[in-house]
Structures are given as structure tokens and as C-alpha cells.
Specification:
By secondary structure, the chain is of the alpha+beta class. The chain is built from six helices and nine strands; from the N terminus they run βαββββαββααβααβ. The chain has a five-stranded antiparallel beta sheet with strand order 5-4-3-2-8. It has a two-stranded parallel sheet with strand order 1-9. It has a two-stranded antiparallel ribbon with strand order 6-7. Helix 1 packs antiparallel against helix 2, helix 1 runs antiparallel to helix 5 and helix 2 runs antiparallel to helix 3. The longest helix has 27 residues.
């Protein structure tokens, strides 16, 4: 019989797990990892069209540039048609590590929804298993973020950040919100991994066992 067990700590862990997974996925797909130096759109000036400088953005595999004559003004999309065209080998490694970490986080986020009904899998606490997976995902994310600045010396980055850009040196660029989101998400990943133990304690407490013995199927505790 399925006992639906809801506690403040287990629900908070579930919500954090979902938020972290989506946050990291959005950051990975974003083009706002690097913000380039100001430039004027490279096109013939059109009448009554402002030629104000803009700052292009560059992601792991995509970019946003301003195109004169384009109906939306800004064109965003992948600059790499396939994996081998990503700006540098370091960024390729970053993409692999981040993708592996995000895959684990998405799996945990999916499983966490069902922890209200199922608290164990193969006689192992599902919270402890998920916490372990989140810890592993966090390590993958750290490796990816550590390798990312090593790719700043690539030709692609130098077109956005100037010739002074080199590994671990931004040149004329600045870091975009996606990089900071990835760092924040990595920190929250480890917090979730630690907090999973608290979710396990909350759902296996003596109070929960008493509620089960009383025959209740829906158990809500603070």
C-alpha cells in the first residue's frame, strides 16, 4: 500500500532539486556566458535606423548578434553545427561534464516527485540514493566550470573579447548571468545533496511510523 508522506523538509528538498535541475539546464542552453565588447552592427546603415553600439553574447555552443535588417534586430542561434565545432577542446569537455551533471540532476528531479509515495528502492533509501547522485552531479559541474575559462584563448572567444583574451583572462568581455547561474546552481546542488539526509530523517521519524500504524494513508507533518 502506498503511504503518501509529506513533510516540510522532504517538500523543500523536492522543490530545490527541481529548481536546481531547471536552472542548470537553462544556464547550459543560454548564450549569455560571455558578454562581448561594444560594437556597431556590421551592415549598411539604413535610414532612420539607430547605429548604437551593442554587446554580443557568446555561450558554449550558441551566440547572439545584432543584424541590421533582421525583423527582431538580434539573431540568436548555435554557432556550432556539430560538437566538433565548439570553440575549443576545453569547452567541449565543459559541455560533456555539464551535460552529465544536468542529466543526473534531471533524473533526481523526476524521481523526487515520487518520493511522497515511495521512500525506498531496492531496500535503499531513495533520498540517500538521490543525495549521492546529486553529489556526483555537483562534482561533474565543478569540473566543467573549472575547465570553462581555459577555453577563453580560442579564436572564437577572441572575436568577441579582443586579442588580449587568453586562458583564464577575459580581455574585453565580461561574464554573463548564465555563468553565475551555473555557479549558484552548483552550490545549491551540494546543498540539496546534504539536505537529502534531512528529508530521509523527516520521512522515517517516529511520528510518521505512528501515523502509519494508525492506518493513515495521507501523512502530512511539519
Amino acid at each position: 500500500m502506498c503511504h503518501v508522506i509529506v513533510t516540510c523538509r522532504s517538500m523543500l528538498w523536492t522543490l530545490l532539486s527541481i529548481v536546481v535541475a531547471f536552472g542548470q539546464l537553462i544556464a547550459f542552453m543560454s548564450t549569455d556566458w560571455l558578454v562581448g565588447f561594444p560594437r556597431v552592427p556590421e551592415a549598411k546603415p539604413e535610414p532612420h535606423v539607430s547605429q548604437e553600439p551593442y554587446r554580443p553574447t557568446l555561450g558554449l555552443y550558441g551566440r547572439c548578434i545584432k543584424v541590421m535588417g533582421h525583423r527582431r534586430g538580434v539573431l540568436c542561434g548555435p554557432y556550432a553545427v556539430d560538437f566538433g565545432e565548439i570553440a575549443s577542446g576545453f569547452w567541449q569537455a565543459t559541455a560533456i561534464f555539464l551535460a552529465a551533471g544536468i542529466l543526473l540532476l534531471c533524473a533526481v528531479a523526476f524521481i523526487s516527485v515520487f518520493t511522497m509515495c515511495f521512500q525506498s528502492i531496492m531496500k535503499k533509501s531513495i533520498f540517500n540514493v538521490c543525495g549521492l547522485l546529486q553529489g556526483i552531479a555537483g562534482l561533474f559541474l565543478i569540473l566543467g566550470l573549472m575547465l570553462y575559462p581555459a577555453g577563453w584563448g580560442s579564436d572564437k572567444v577572441q572575436t568577441y573579447c579582443g586579442p588580449d583574451a587568453s586562458p583564464y583572462k577575459l580581455g574585453l568581455c565580461s561574464l554573463g548571468w548564465a555563468f553565475y547561474t551555473a555557479i549558484g546552481g552548483t552550490a545549491l546542488t551540494f546543498i540539496c545533496a546534504v539536505f537529502s539526509a534531512q528529508a530521509e530523517i523527516a520521512t522515517s521519524s517516529d511520528k510518521v511510523q505512528e501515523e502509519i500504524e494508525e492506518g493513515k494513508n495521507l501523512i502530512c507533518l511539519l
